[in-house]
Design brief:
CATH topology of the largest domain: Growth Hormone, Chain: A
Shape: globular
Order of helices and strands: HHHHHHHHHHHHHHHHH
Largest sheet: none
CATH class of the largest domain: Mainly Alpha
Number of helices: 17
Distance between the termini: 34 Å
Oligomer: single chain
Number of strands: 0
Radius of gyration: 21 Å
Length: 412
């Protein structure tokens, strides 16, 4: 923690900017999209299948992220993120002007995710990784709290706005909030300084080179398995709670507990990544998540048991972006961080879509979630093993950390 406080003196503006930028970036809309989907279905008499475009947007975004990362590496975070912020705000205005034609909704929604992708972790985690070296894990954890904080603050605010001005007013509220918040965040953030004492800021793997490394595919596969397992579970959470035999009103309480676990685990794991061997920290967290999934499967329909299981599973949901950002910087350096992060994030976004679809399909075919839950437990263990395999590629001594990252002596 002392290292974090030391680096915070020079990087506090960047950290506040990252919290604000991530909190009001593209990630702010996803948890609240159901508010709008329900309103649109009611007004335009759309089927629920019509809103399935959200799953289409995820793989499209995954395909675009490496190109967004290349732009970030070439032109800098502030320029690209500022343009992305403006475009995202314009897409919300476009959504507010819809007339009920599905093609317009699809076009605006996909444009929102594609053009707004540079307002997410791919931008701000680069800034934090540059400013914080010795306490990178802790700083990344704090910056990513912005997403969780807005997920707790915005729902009642948005509900009040939509109650008075409808879904059009809700989209306009988002347009104003993301524009003001994003530009303020970028005003707080400073252009990265190329420190001669920090080789990882001036060296690192290009995406084409990184993609030829064994470590890239190990990390990508670990992130894919983790996102399928954890976010598939979250996507069907309310139905899983009811199938467990718990009262329907238990779902919101357990979901709140899950959110609290995500916030706490993000901070704890972020600090642990700095203090201990990071691949072991990741493996331990995922094994605990697997234990939580097994406890959910075999424990009785008791609220206390379910709560403990959810808290353990929350360790994985709170850590996936921490792991992605930390290991990307640690293994491949920062010079081409945006492009490499974008390539690895493709695994994450694909996993979200696959997890949501897999849980639904398995339930339709088997009539229960037991097989899907077993799949998640197994994937947590597999991902833990893949993180441990990264140990050969991780720098050991803190004094040689930058050289190991920048020179790229990774496992082949």
């Amino acid at each position: 923690m002392s290292a974090f406080l030391d680096e915070l003196r020079a990087g506090w503006r960047d950290l506040i900017g990252a919290v604000l930028g991530l909190g009001l970036g593209i990630g702010a809309y996803t948890p609240l999209s159901s508010f709008f989907f329900r309103a649109l279905e009611h007004e335009f008499r759309w089927s629920k299948g019509a809103t399935a475009v959200s799953l289409i947007a995820l793989p499209v975004t995954a395909a675009v992220l490496p190109f967004a990362g290349l732009l970030l590496d070439r032109f800098g975070v502030r320029r690209v993120a500022a343009l992305s912020t403006i475009c995202m705000s314009a897409c919300f205005v476009w959504l507010s002007a819809m007339n009920g034609q599905l093609w317009m909704f699809y076009a605006a929604f996909i444009s929102l995710n594609v053009l707004g992708c540079a307002t997410g972790p791919v931008s701000y985690t680069r800034t934090i990784s540059t400013r914080f070296r010795k306490s990178r894990g802790t700083a990344l954890a704090f910056s990513l709290l912005g997403i969780g904080l807005t997920a707790m603050i915005l729902p009642p605010v948005l509900a009040g706005v939509m109650a008075r001005w409808g879904w059009r007013g809700g989209y306009q509220f988002f347009a104003a909030a993301v524009l003001i918040g994003g530009l303020l965040a970028l005003a707080l953030s400073r252009a990265p300084v190329q420190d001669a004492s920090s080789p990882d800021t001036r060296a690192g793997e290009r995406l084409a080179v990184a993609a030829c490394k064994r470590a890239f595919w190990l990390l990508g596969a670990a992130i894919l398995g983790l996102s399928v397992a954890s976010l598939g579970f979250v996507s069907q959470f309310q139905s899983i709670v009811i199938e467990k035999g718990l009262a329907a009103q238990s779902a919101p309480l357990l979901l709140s507990a899950l959110s609290a676990s995500v916030v706490v685990s993000r901070l704890v794991i972020g600090g642990a990544l700095d203090a201990f061997r990071p691949e072991r920290v990741a493996a331990t967290a995922l094994c605990l998540a697997a234990a939580g999934m097994l406890l959910w499967m075999f424990g009785g329909p008791h609220a206390a048991t379910a709560l403990f299981a959810v808290l353990l599973v929350g360790l994985s949901i709170g850590a996936e972006l921490d792991f992605l950002s930390f290991f990307c910087a640690r293994l491949f350096g920062l010079r081409h961080y945006g492009a490499v992060y974008g390539g690895l994030a493709a695994f994450f976004y694909t996993g979200i879509a696959v997890g949501g679809i897999a849980y639904g399909v398995i339930h339709d075919r088997t009539g229960s979630y037991v097989t899907a839950l077993a799949m998640s437990a197994a994937l947590f263990v597999v991902s833990a093993f893949l993180f441990l395999m990264l140990g050969r590629s991780m720098p050991i001594a803190e004094g040689t950390e930058g050289v190991a990252r920048g020179a790229g002596p990774l496992a082949t």
